[in-house]
Amino acid sequence: MLFGLAYFAEAHQLTNFGMIEAMGLAGTSSMMLGSCISVASIQDDECGPNTGGIYELYVISRNDILTFPELKANSKVELDGEIVLKPGKAWAKWDFAEDTGEIAFKSEGEAGSQTFTQETGVYIPRMTPTIANIIANALNGKFVVAIVNPNELVNIGGTKIRPMKFDIDYKSGKKFNDKNGGEYKFAVGISHPPLYYTGQLPTVAAPVVPVV
Fold first, then answer.
1. What's the pLDDT score for residue 135?
2. What is the dihedral of CA 19, 22, 26, 28, to 10 degrees?
3. CB atoms within 10 A of CB 129
Protein backbone atom coordinates (compact mmCIF):
# COMPACT_ATOMS: atom_id res chain seq x y z
CA MET A 1 0.00 0.00 0.00
CA LEU A 2 2.79 2.44 0.95
CA PHE A 3 4.74 1.58 -2.21
CA GLY A 4 1.63 2.19 -4.29
CA LEU A 5 1.07 5.64 -2.73
CA ALA A 6 4.70 6.58 -3.26
CA TYR A 7 4.48 5.57 -6.93
CA PHE A 8 1.22 7.54 -7.32
CA ALA A 9 2.80 10.65 -5.82
CA GLU A 10 5.93 10.43 -7.94
CA ALA A 11 3.98 9.75 -11.14
CA HIS A 12 1.73 12.78 -10.59
CA GLN A 13 4.47 14.98 -9.05
CA LEU A 14 2.41 15.58 -5.91
CA THR A 15 3.71 17.16 -2.71
CA ASN A 16 2.65 15.81 0.68
CA PHE A 17 -0.20 18.30 0.77
CA GLY A 18 -1.07 17.50 -2.81
CA MET A 19 -1.43 13.88 -1.78
CA ILE A 20 -3.82 14.89 1.00
CA GLU A 21 -5.95 16.89 -1.44
CA ALA A 22 -5.87 14.12 -4.03
CA MET A 23 -7.13 11.62 -1.45
CA GLY A 24 -10.00 13.96 -0.52
CA LEU A 25 -8.80 14.50 3.03
CA ALA A 26 -8.66 18.29 2.73
CA GLY A 27 -9.68 20.88 0.21
CA THR A 28 -7.83 23.93 1.56
CA SER A 29 -4.90 24.72 3.83
CA SER A 30 -7.30 26.07 6.45
CA MET A 31 -9.05 22.73 6.62
CA MET A 32 -5.72 21.02 6.99
CA LEU A 33 -4.95 23.21 9.96
CA GLY A 34 -8.35 22.56 11.51
CA SER A 35 -9.21 26.28 11.41
CA CYS A 36 -12.76 27.58 10.93
CA ILE A 37 -11.73 31.17 10.11
CA SER A 38 -9.19 32.78 7.81
CA VAL A 39 -6.58 35.04 9.39
CA ALA A 40 -5.56 38.39 7.89
CA SER A 41 -2.18 40.07 8.15
CA ILE A 42 -1.45 42.43 11.06
CA GLN A 43 0.50 45.46 9.84
CA ASP A 44 2.36 47.76 12.20
CA ASP A 45 1.32 51.41 12.02
CA GLU A 46 4.26 53.32 13.47
CA CYS A 47 2.59 56.67 12.78
CA GLY A 48 -0.63 55.96 14.67
CA PRO A 49 -1.20 56.72 18.35
CA ASN A 50 -0.55 53.93 20.84
CA THR A 51 -1.01 55.56 24.23
CA GLY A 52 -1.65 53.38 27.26
CA GLY A 53 -4.28 53.70 29.98
CA ILE A 54 -7.87 54.91 29.87
CA TYR A 55 -9.34 58.41 30.19
CA GLU A 56 -12.97 57.86 31.13
CA LEU A 57 -15.17 55.09 32.50
CA TYR A 58 -18.96 54.90 32.09
CA VAL A 59 -21.15 52.27 33.74
CA ILE A 60 -24.73 51.18 33.19
CA SER A 61 -26.87 48.35 34.49
CA ARG A 62 -27.77 45.67 31.99
CA ASN A 63 -31.42 46.21 32.97
CA ASP A 64 -31.27 49.86 31.83
CA ILE A 65 -30.40 48.92 28.22
CA LEU A 66 -33.33 48.72 25.81
CA THR A 67 -31.51 47.40 22.74
CA PHE A 68 -27.91 46.37 22.13
CA PRO A 69 -26.57 46.69 18.56
CA GLU A 70 -25.45 43.83 16.37
CA LEU A 71 -21.92 43.52 15.02
CA LYS A 72 -20.94 45.02 11.69
CA ALA A 73 -20.80 42.64 8.75
CA ASN A 74 -17.52 40.68 8.64
CA SER A 75 -16.47 41.92 12.10
CA LYS A 76 -16.36 40.14 15.43
CA VAL A 77 -15.68 43.28 17.53
CA GLU A 78 -17.22 46.40 15.89
CA LEU A 79 -20.74 47.36 16.93
CA ASP A 80 -23.09 48.64 14.25
CA GLY A 81 -25.33 51.36 15.70
CA GLU A 82 -26.35 52.77 19.07
CA ILE A 83 -26.73 51.21 22.50
CA VAL A 84 -30.27 52.41 23.16
CA LEU A 85 -31.19 53.04 26.80
CA LYS A 86 -34.59 52.80 28.40
CA PRO A 87 -36.46 56.08 29.01
CA GLY A 88 -35.16 57.88 32.08
CA LYS A 89 -31.83 55.99 32.10
CA ALA A 90 -28.29 57.26 31.43
CA TRP A 91 -24.66 56.17 31.65
CA ALA A 92 -23.00 56.90 35.01
CA LYS A 93 -19.51 58.43 34.73
CA TRP A 94 -17.10 57.07 37.36
CA ASP A 95 -14.16 59.39 38.09
CA PHE A 96 -10.96 57.65 39.14
CA ALA A 97 -7.37 58.49 40.07
CA GLU A 98 -5.19 59.53 37.14
CA ASP A 99 -3.14 56.77 35.51
CA THR A 100 -4.89 53.96 37.41
CA GLY A 101 -7.43 52.78 34.80
CA GLU A 102 -6.85 49.72 32.65
CA ILE A 103 -8.73 47.35 30.38
CA ALA A 104 -7.39 43.86 29.85
CA PHE A 105 -8.40 40.66 28.16
CA LYS A 106 -6.80 37.27 27.76
CA SER A 107 -7.62 33.97 26.16
CA GLU A 108 -8.17 30.92 28.32
CA GLY A 109 -9.37 27.34 28.06
CA GLU A 110 -8.30 24.25 26.18
CA ALA A 111 -7.64 24.24 22.45
CA GLY A 112 -10.93 24.04 20.59
CA SER A 113 -12.88 25.52 23.51
CA GLN A 114 -11.07 28.81 24.10
CA THR A 115 -12.85 31.98 25.19
CA PHE A 116 -11.80 35.36 26.61
CA THR A 117 -11.80 36.95 30.05
CA GLN A 118 -12.36 40.73 30.00
CA GLU A 119 -11.47 43.01 32.90
CA THR A 120 -11.79 46.76 33.47
CA GLY A 121 -10.18 48.17 36.60
CA VAL A 122 -9.70 51.60 38.19
CA TYR A 123 -8.55 53.00 41.53
CA ILE A 124 -10.92 55.44 43.26
CA PRO A 125 -9.47 57.24 46.29
CA ARG A 126 -11.24 57.79 49.62
CA MET A 127 -14.50 56.40 50.94
CA THR A 128 -17.59 58.46 51.65
CA PRO A 129 -21.23 57.64 52.44
CA THR A 130 -22.12 58.45 48.81
CA ILE A 131 -19.47 56.13 47.38
CA ALA A 132 -20.30 53.39 49.90
CA ASN A 133 -23.96 53.57 48.92
CA ILE A 134 -23.09 53.21 45.22
CA ILE A 135 -20.93 50.18 46.05
CA ALA A 136 -23.70 48.58 48.11
CA ASN A 137 -26.14 48.99 45.22
CA ALA A 138 -23.63 47.68 42.65
CA LEU A 139 -22.83 44.44 44.47
CA ASN A 140 -24.36 41.42 42.68
CA GLY A 141 -25.39 43.68 39.82
CA LYS A 142 -24.84 43.02 36.12
CA PHE A 143 -23.22 45.79 34.10
CA VAL A 144 -21.97 47.02 30.75
CA VAL A 145 -19.06 49.46 30.81
CA ALA A 146 -17.77 51.95 28.25
CA ILE A 147 -14.10 52.93 28.29
CA VAL A 148 -12.70 55.96 26.48
CA ASN A 149 -8.98 55.54 25.84
CA PRO A 150 -6.34 58.15 24.93
CA ASN A 151 -6.39 56.98 21.31
CA GLU A 152 -9.96 58.36 20.98
CA LEU A 153 -11.48 54.90 20.77
CA VAL A 154 -14.39 53.64 22.86
CA ASN A 155 -14.42 50.05 24.08
CA ILE A 156 -17.49 48.30 25.46
CA GLY A 157 -16.97 45.70 28.16
CA GLY A 158 -19.65 43.04 28.48
CA THR A 159 -22.96 42.93 26.61
CA LYS A 160 -26.64 42.89 27.47
CA ILE A 161 -26.55 39.10 27.20
CA ARG A 162 -23.15 38.63 28.88
CA PRO A 163 -22.85 41.50 31.42
CA MET A 164 -19.88 42.14 33.70
CA LYS A 165 -19.65 41.36 37.42
CA PHE A 166 -18.56 44.08 39.86
CA ASP A 167 -15.90 43.63 42.57
CA ILE A 168 -14.17 46.02 44.97
CA ASP A 169 -11.11 45.75 47.19
CA TYR A 170 -11.02 48.76 49.53
CA LYS A 171 -8.18 49.52 51.98
CA SER A 172 -7.94 52.54 54.28
CA GLY A 173 -4.19 52.12 54.76
CA LYS A 174 -2.45 51.73 58.11
CA LYS A 175 -0.29 54.86 58.22
CA PHE A 176 -1.17 58.53 58.03
CA ASN A 177 0.30 58.84 54.51
CA ASP A 178 -0.90 55.47 53.13
CA LYS A 179 -3.26 55.32 50.19
CA ASN A 180 -6.93 55.36 51.20
CA GLY A 181 -9.14 54.00 48.46
CA GLY A 182 -10.39 51.01 46.54
CA GLU A 183 -9.60 48.91 43.50
CA TYR A 184 -12.82 48.68 41.46
CA LYS A 185 -13.08 45.91 38.89
CA PHE A 186 -15.59 44.68 36.31
CA ALA A 187 -15.03 41.24 34.78
CA VAL A 188 -16.74 38.75 32.47
CA GLY A 189 -16.00 35.55 30.60
CA ILE A 190 -17.06 36.03 26.98
CA SER A 191 -16.43 34.87 23.41
CA HIS A 192 -14.72 38.03 22.10
CA PRO A 193 -12.35 40.88 23.09
CA PRO A 194 -13.84 44.21 24.23
CA LEU A 195 -16.09 45.64 21.52
CA TYR A 196 -15.54 48.89 19.60
CA TYR A 197 -18.31 51.49 19.70
CA THR A 198 -18.85 54.76 17.82
CA GLY A 199 -22.26 55.70 19.25
CA GLN A 200 -23.34 58.11 21.98
CA LEU A 201 -22.82 57.79 25.75
CA PRO A 202 -25.56 60.02 27.22
CA THR A 203 -24.98 60.88 30.88
CA VAL A 204 -28.21 62.85 31.16
CA ALA A 205 -31.35 60.74 31.02
CA ALA A 206 -33.89 61.47 28.33
CA PRO A 207 -37.20 62.65 29.86
CA VAL A 208 -39.81 60.00 30.42
CA VAL A 209 -42.83 60.76 28.28
CA PRO A 210 -46.01 60.07 30.25
CA VAL A 211 -48.52 57.74 28.68
CA VAL A 212 -51.83 59.53 28.03
1. 96
2. 90
3. 7
